[in-house]
Amino acid sequence: MRGNLRWSEHSTNNLYYASSSAPKVSQQERKFQIKSNAMRFQQPSFNHDYKCMKGGSTYQECDKKYVVKAVMKSSFESEPNALNPKKTSDSIKNFLDIFYKFCYPYAMIAIALCTISSSMLPLEKLSDISPSIFIGALQALVPQFLITIYVSAVNQIFDFEIDKINKPYLPLASGQLSFTTVVIIATSCLILSFLLSWVVGSWPLTWNVILSTSIWNVYSINAPLLRWKRHPVLAAICTISVWAFVLPITFFLHMQTFVLKRPVVFPRSLVFYVLFMSFYSMGMALSKDIPDVEGDKINEIDTFSIRLGQKQVFWICVFLFEMAFGMALLGAVSSSFFWIKIVTGLGNIVLASILWHQAKSIDFNNKASTGFFYMLIWKLLYPAYFLLALIR
């Protein structure tokens, strides 16, 4: 007798049964087999794949050709693998990337070069170069790095609403860092900078920390009589005071009086250094606001770019930068060393030419273009620091 293979699917357990007119299995065996199958398929920790190979004519033949694959699920799959070296490495890289953006890396590079170039000004001859010179430069550099991080933190805390419009990529504005984390970073860096300068025992470095933090606090903190960045003239005074006077003079005096144990003097090289940075930092103060007009308007931050217009302020900045390179060129020409005249003279001419060439291609309606120009002036400042250090 020909058997008809019949399938019936139960929606809950996806179990398949076959019946035929082939030799019958006893009722007791059938009940045991059904119970055994149900218990097997109800195990929660297995994934099952079912496959029936067609071709058997009897219940026993069809049942034998079921293939059941059981894969044990690891109980650890749902738990985070905190000890995974790759995961740990990725977390560290991610944190370093966030911290890199948080610290304004272009300012950190400028601070490092300013420290080195200012520390070279007191050197009068090759014999002055010694391990104590490098230690002295490091003593000045580490506290200033901490101050720069502190200033970045304070600025981002009080510029939070502005940065969400002008600089949404910054860690605090983007939510990559919390307010609590930023406050902890700021407080730690401020305390460490004072502690290190006190341990070193150099009075110029102590005044550097006091003056730098005080001026930038006045610039950024939103409190009565503070927040000078809201007023363009006062904002420019803050920037010029730090970059043109506090940094180069305190670093120079630290090396001159504390490291080399020489009397306080103000040589011609330092004078040209201060003149160069006076014009250049004034241009930096004005050009900083050119890309940020939109956010400054919304938050009622008065800037020269809003008052006079981006284009007019831009060309004022270009004029100030060119004047700065002119001061450095004048210092190079007045040097008594021929090789200094050639190297520093040609170097400043090249930098001034690059600035002028790039300035002519800036699109004031494109924020990326004006932002490019702002970063360009920082990049031109880096080699300028080396040229200033050579003037004698």
TrEMBL record:
InterPro entries (UniProt xref): AtHST-like, UbiA_prenyltransferase, UbiA_sf
GO molecular function terms noted in the UniProt entry: prenyltransferase activity
Coiled coil regions, renumbered to chain: none
Keywords tagged on the record: Chloroplast, Membrane, Plastid, Transferase, Transit peptide, Transmembrane, Transmembrane helix
CDD domains with a match to the protein in the record: PT_UbiA_HPT1
GO cellular component: chloroplast membrane
Keyword ATP-binding among record annotations: no
Domain of life of the organism encoding this protein: Eukaryota
Subcellular location: Plastid, Chloroplast membrane
Membrane-topology descriptor: Multi-pass membrane protein
UniProt cross-references to Pfam families, sorted A to Z: UbiA
Predominant localisation class: plastid
TM stretches of this protein: 102-121, 133-158, 179-199, 205-226, 233-253, 265-287, 313-332, 338-359, 371-391
Family named by the database record: Belongs to the UbiA prenyltransferase family.
Name of this protein: Glycinol 4-dimethylallyltransferase
Organism listed in the record: Psophocarpus tetragonolobus
